[in-house]
């Protein structure tokens, strides 16, 4: 791909010459910001990979809904995905709660079984005419360009609502994540908070699978927050930076996906977010990498 | 209600699966007293505190805090965790943690009032970490972290303080600071209950002692209760008592 | 019971598929027990996904998918990923579970992009990434698996003591001179190699099921290491053959079916243990006394 083509396509992208590209951009930015916001709490609770399980677990719900309704209307697919993702997180809690299975194994068990079920259903769905299930493949690795306007509206509403809730409840959420015993004694209804965070996580995952895909949505829940935690020292800014990095990754990822043939938005977004993490890992304070400038500075 | 003991536990049974952690514990803790909870590993000391805090469910028995039970009762209780229990990597500063102590006063959604900021400042000064107010907790030493949680407890201005092994792994200066603060709290009329690991310091630091080994072996003022016979019973006869050659009673 | 026998008469694919499944599932089950005990189940998740970039590297090296190249790609990427995860999580403020997620998703994303752009001619597409193609495995894959599966099992047998002690008490192991780090890398690299070798058979994601479900099931049923391995292998065989039958009779993907059957077996084991322990407790009388300070308490 020559520089000329790159420039030409970039121009088309930023001038919103194509409606689908504009939608893809908006969707990716919203998804990045939302996942960054919600993912921060899971990363801080050392439960990063539950997002991975939830993401993979949307597959049987989405495909199942498609098989049952025969259409790719958004609402049933979302509902199906939400249902199985919630079920999967419930399974993780139940399995991990029992004393015979390790908590980390619980996540892997739930992920593997639900995703396996999703694959089975997908193989059934693939028997139907190609046109009908072509869109389902977009859900696996993300295809923000295929987002329709109604889907975008739904995504925006959910994203903004969740963001508003998180911002309003930032104090109880922070304390509940930091010191659950203290929070409980201070009157925070811990089980409600936990359920709420799980619900928010699952919602974020379900509305994000169009743009990022089932397999990689975990990355947007883990990588931007981890980057933010390297760069900030306090909670409110951690949330803001995480959302910002997520949004930026979405934007750049959408651009890359538009400009380069054959690249889906999901992997593109993830690579950008990973690059941001790598930069922060090397250059942020307390870095193990010794850079010439910093040699003279005494770290606290 | 003012006559009710700070903690009133009756016939408390707590099980973890098949393992019985507390087997019918009946004990009280009083205001204006510094009470130590001691016992061998696995005796259920932390479990007792957790049960009072509502962290673990009681299988049988009752727990009352100032004559009340349930979540409302905890409004007057202040909890200082074991140092290792909290994530030191969390993006909060010392000031943020101490301000958490004011949440019950200020509510979750209102801005902190002048009184709140004043209480926070006073707590930081009392624990000698006022200069650390904006430091992230990941940059604190063990002693500084312990003082931060102590400051949070002070800012709460509660009536019952529960501390789980606060002296573990802190330097001598911090240990002295903690002791002074606890004494002040007691003199101010609060009840202070401490799970303590160091038997040697019990007589000098505490007023009352609870000797626990799944059940209460003995409880009462240190002068009458903290003796070798009771200790040997609590440790199942496996305790080795070393006496200082020139000192009097242990 | 003709449904049991009939598929075998339809063609060689059933036998080849069963062979491939067995050759992937059994080593995964055995290795998975150790991963489980070391609380590395999520690393199993990562290593399974990393099969994809391993394949891409193999293709980049050799321009095709020859077994030797696949192995080299697997080993290279496995080592790099393991090292990357360790290195990243050593920095303060990076949590170890997050490090796993960051590394494997980045590598997987890179692999997807490579597959859909540069490596487009190769016989990998996204369907293959997900489902594998158990009922049409190539001779190359069977050859590779036939060598790798026994080799990995032999490695486990030879390294049994080291694996056992490093899984239960790495610090003690280090103190008595066991090369703990080398064992760790050897374990993860072997897992990646098996995952890569089995990629064509079961895809990139299903190996998680093969690694974790047998171990989790075994842990529900037994305490001892040797029994755990035995139960895990039994689970792997049951799940593989069960999944294969389901796939063949219901015309669904075998990879997914194996995972689902494995999950059902795990669920059954949990239920069986729950019922069993209730019977036990009801029959005993429990009189607790003071804790003996000399004994350690669970």
List keywords for this structure.
heterotrimer, B: 250 residues, alpha/beta, Rossmann fold, six-stranded mixed sheet, three-stranded antiparallel sheet, 9 helices, globular, C: 298 residues, mainly alpha, ABC transporter involved in vitamin B12 uptake, BtuC, disordered C terminus
Can you offer a commentary on this structure?
The complex is a heterotrimer of chains A (300), B (250) and C (298). In chain A, 77% of the residues lie in helices and 0% in strands. Chain A is mostly helical and 300 residues long. Chain A has a single domain, classed as Orthogonal Bundle (ABC transporter involved in vitamin B12 uptake, BtuC), CATH 1.10.3470.10. By secondary structure, chain B is of the alpha/beta class. Chain B has one domain (7-234): Rossmann fold. In chain B, 31% of the residues lie in helices and 24% in strands. Chain B contains nine helices and nine strands. In chain B, a hairpin with a 1-residue loop joins strand 8 and strand 9. The longest helix of chain B is centred in the last third of the chain and has 16 residues, at 172-187. Chain B starts with 6 loop residues before the first strand and ends in a 16-residue tail after the last helix. Chain C has a single domain (2-275), classed as ABC transporter involved in vitamin B12 uptake, BtuC (Orthogonal Bundle), CATH 1.10.3470. Chain C has 15 helices and no strands. In chain C, 50% of the residues are buried. With 298 residues, chain C is mostly helical. Helix content of chain C is 79%, strand content 0%. Mean pLDDT of chain C is 85; it is low at 283-298. The interface between A and C is large, with 60 and 60 residues.
């Amino acid at each position: 791909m020559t520089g000329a083509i790159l420039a030409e396509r970039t121009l088309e992208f930023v001038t919103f010459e194509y409606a689908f590209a504009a939608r893809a951009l908006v969707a990716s930015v919203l998804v990045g910001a939302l996942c960054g916001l919600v993912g921060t709490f899971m990363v801080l609770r050392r439960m990063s990979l539950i997002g991975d399980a939830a993401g993979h677990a949307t597959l049987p719900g989405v495909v199942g809904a498609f098989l049952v309704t025969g259409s790719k209307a958004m609402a049933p697919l979302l509902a199906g995905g939400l249902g199985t993702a919630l079920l999967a997180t419930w399974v993780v809690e139940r399995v991990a709660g029992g004393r015979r299975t390790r908590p980390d194994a619980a996540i892997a068990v739930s992920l593997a079984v639900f995703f396996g079920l999703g694959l089975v259903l997908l193989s059934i769905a693939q028997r139907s005419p190609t046109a009908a299930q072509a869109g389902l493949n977009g859900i696996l690795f993300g295809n923000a360009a295929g987002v329709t306007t109604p889907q975008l509206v739904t995504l925006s509403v959910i994203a903004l609502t969740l963001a508003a809730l998180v911002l309003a409840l930032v104090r109880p959420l922070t304390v509940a994540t930091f010191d659950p015993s203290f929070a409980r004694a201070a009157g925070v209804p811990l089980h409600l908070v936990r359920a709420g965070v799980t619900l928010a996580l699952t919602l974020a995952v379900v509305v994000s699978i169009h743009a990022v895909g089932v397999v990689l949505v975990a990355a947007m829940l883990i990588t931007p927050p981890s980057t933010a935690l390297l760069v900030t020292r306090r909670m409110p800014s951690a949330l803001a930076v995480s959302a910002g990095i997520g949004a930026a990754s979405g934007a750049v990822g959408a651009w890359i996906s538009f400009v380069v043939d054959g690249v889906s938005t999901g992997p593109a977004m993830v690579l950008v977010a990973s690059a941001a993490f790598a930069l922060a890992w090397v250059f942020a304070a307390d870095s193990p990498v010794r850079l010439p400038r910093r040699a003279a500075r005494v770290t606290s | 209600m003012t006559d009710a003991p700070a903690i009133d536990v009756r016939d408390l049974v707590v099980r973890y699966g098949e393992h019985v952690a507390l087997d019918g514990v009946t004990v009280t803790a009083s205001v204006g007293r510094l009470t130590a909870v001691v016992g061998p590993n696995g005796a259920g000391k932390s479990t007792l505190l957790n049960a009072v805090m509502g962290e673990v469910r009681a299988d049988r028995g009752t727990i009352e805090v100032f004559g009340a039970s349930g979540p409302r009762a905890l409004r007057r209780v202040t909890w200082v965790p074991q140092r290792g229990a909290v994530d030191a990597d969390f993006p909060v500063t010392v000031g943020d943690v101490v301000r958490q102590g004011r949440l019950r006063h200020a509510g979750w959604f209102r801005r902190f009032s002048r009184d709140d900021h004043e209480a926070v400042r006073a707590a930081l000064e009392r624990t000698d970490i006022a200069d650390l107010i904006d430091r992230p907790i990941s940059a604190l030493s063990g002693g500084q972290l312990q003082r931060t949680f102590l400051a949070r407890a002070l800012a709460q201005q509660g009536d019952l303080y529960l501390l789980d092994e606060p002296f573990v792994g802190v330097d001598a200066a911090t240990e002295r600071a903690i002791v002074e603060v606890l004494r002040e709290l007691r003199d101010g009329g609060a009840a202070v209950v401490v799970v303590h690991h160091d038997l040697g310091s019990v007589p000098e630091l505490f007023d009352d002692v609870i000797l626990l080994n799944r059940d209460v072996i003995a409880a009462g003022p240190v002068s009458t209760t903290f003796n070798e016979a009771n200790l040997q019973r609590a440790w199942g006869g496996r305790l080795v008592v070393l006496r200082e050659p020139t000192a009097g009673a242990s | 019971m003709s449904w049991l026998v009939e598929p075998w008469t339809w063609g060689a694919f059933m036998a080849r598929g069963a062979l491939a499944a067995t050759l992937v599932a059994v080593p995964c089950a055995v290795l998975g027990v150790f991963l489980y005990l070391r609380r590395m189940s999520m690393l199993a998740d990562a290593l399974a996904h990393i099969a994809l970039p391993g394949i891409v590297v193999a293709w980049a090296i050799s321009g095709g998918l020859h077994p030797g190249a696949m192995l080299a790609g697997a080993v290279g990427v496995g080592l790099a990923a393991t090292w990357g995860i360790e290195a990243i999580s050593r920095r303060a403020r990076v949590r170890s579970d997050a490090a796993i997620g960051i590394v494997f998703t980045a590598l997987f994303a890179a692999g997807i992009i490579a597959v859909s752009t540069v490596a487009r001619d190769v016989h990998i597409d996204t369907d293959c990434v997900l489902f594998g193609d158990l009922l049409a495995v190539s001779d190359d894959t069977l050859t590779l698996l036939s060598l790798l599966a026994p080799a990995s099992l032999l490695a486990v047998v030879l390294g049994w003591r080291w694996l056992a002690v490093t899984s239960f008490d790495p610090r003690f192991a280090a103190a008595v001179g066991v090369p703990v780090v080398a064992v760790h890398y050897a374990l993860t690299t072997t897992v990646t190699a098996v995952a890569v070798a089995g990629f064509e058979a079961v895809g990139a994601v299903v190996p998680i099921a093969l690694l974790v479900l047998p171990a989790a099931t075994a842990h529900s049923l037994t305490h001892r290491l040797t029994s755990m391995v035995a139960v895990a292998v039994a689970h792997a065989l049951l799940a593989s053959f069960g999944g294969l039958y389901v796939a063949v009779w219901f015309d669904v993907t075998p990879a997914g079916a194996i995972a689902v059957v494995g999950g059902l077996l795990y669920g059954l084991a949990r239920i069986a243990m729950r019922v069993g322990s209730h019977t036990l407790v009801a029959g005993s009388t429990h009189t607790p006394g003071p804790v003996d300070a000399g004994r350690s308490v669970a």
